[in-house]
Amino acid sequence: MIRAALLCALLLPGSAFAQSALSRNGGDLRVLDKVTGQLFDLSVGVGQSEKVGFLNIVMNDCRVPSDNPNGDAYAELVVTYRDDPAPVFSGWMIASAPALNAMDHPRYDVWVMDCAN
């Protein structure tokens, strides 16, 4: 509950902690298959999806602070597993604090690395 409130405060305009952000055309993600130990680095465009293993990852947005474009990236993702339409993750991930709103899956971990223009 607290992490959701903190995440909202960071991302929602008009909140006391909100900062202006620039949307980018896509972003870089890292995926870990915890069974095989393989790491996959992906570049995903906004509005596009990528498959890796049994995951399908859709990037809805990728933003950086407007006052520091090389700063902390955060992305809105929807991740599904196999053919299940219910997402295993849907929301914002922050590159510098992946545990703040992490994907909880027994086989895969996903992290936002950066946003790209």
Summarize the structure.
This protein is mainly beta. The protein has one helix and eight strands. It has one helix spanning 2-11, and strands at 21-23, 26-33, 39-45, 49-52, 55-65, 74-81, 89-94, 108-116.
Task: Explain this structure.
The protein is mostly beta strands. It is built from 1 helix and 8 strands; from the N terminus they run αββββββββ. A hairpin with a 2-residue loop joins β4 and β5. The radius of gyration is 14 Å and the shape is globular. The N and C termini lie far apart (33 Å). Mean pLDDT is 86; it is low at 1-7.
Which key terms come to mind for this protein?
single chain, 1 helix, three-stranded antiparallel sheet, mainly beta
